[in-house]
Structure formats: C-alpha cells, structure tokens
C-alpha cells in the first residue's frame, strides 16, 4: 500500500485500572481544577462541582486529560478524544483482566476487512 492510500489517522485505545487510596485527595484536586477553569460558565461549574463531589470516578475523569498522553509526541496532533470512568469490581487474578489476552476485537476487524 502506498503512502497515499494509508490513513494518517490512528485510533489509540488505552484502558487503565487505578486504585484510589485517597478519595478526598482526588475530589479535592478535581474541585481545584474546576475552580481554576476561568472559562467555565457558572451553571456548568456548579454541575461539575456536584458531580465530582458525589462520585470519585467522575472526579478522576476531570483530572485525566487525553491531550496529556500525546501532547508532547512529535508529529502527532490530537484530533478527537473521549473518555469515561466508572467504579468497578477488580480481581487481578481473573481472566477478565488479562491485559495480554485477546479481547476479540482484532478477529472481528479482520473478518470485516477480509
């Protein structure tokens, strides 16, 4: 395939599982970030503050920025990003959490492409 035929766009999928040892610290940091955002309208600020106060996963989502992952990578511009967070049950010994395992997506993509 020539360079002209290949896409310049790459979908980068990242899945993280983090352990929150200090919910207060996460919530406090999220509230600070919201307070520091001078461009956020007052109504949106009130909603954001309530959301991060009620849900640690929501607070963490306010602190994680996909731009931080690729912002310093030369030759790359972030075009679109979406992310979410949720509290989960986690068992590191479960096959469900085997990050090296095949999740089936690649096989489905190969079948669709083939």
Helix content: 40-55%
Radius of gyration: 19 Å
Number of helices: 5
Main sheet attributes: strand count, strand direction, barrel closure: none
How confident overall, as mean pLDDT? 84
Spans of at least 5 consecutive residues with low confidence: 107-114
Please indicate the count of domains: 1
The class by helix and strand makeup works out as mainly alpha
Overall 3D form: flat
Distance between the termini: 16 Å
Strand content: under 5%
The total count of strands amounts to 0
How do the helices and strands follow one another from N- to C-terminus? HHHHH
- The assembly state of the depicted protein chains is single chain
Q: What does this entry look like structurally?
A:
The protein has one domain. The chain is flat, with a radius of gyration of 19 Å. Helices cover 43% and strands 0% of the residues. Helix 1 packs antiparallel against helix 2 and helix 1 (23-36) packs across helix 3 (56-63). The chain contains 5 helices and no strands. The model is unreliable at 107-114 (pLDDT under 50). With 114 residues, it is mainly alpha-helical.
List keywords for this structure.
114 residues, 0% strand, 43% helix, mainly alpha
Write the layout of secondary structure elements.
Layout: H1 23-36, H2 42-54, H3 56-63, H4 66-70, H5 105-113
Helix pairs in contact: 1-2, 1-3, 2-3
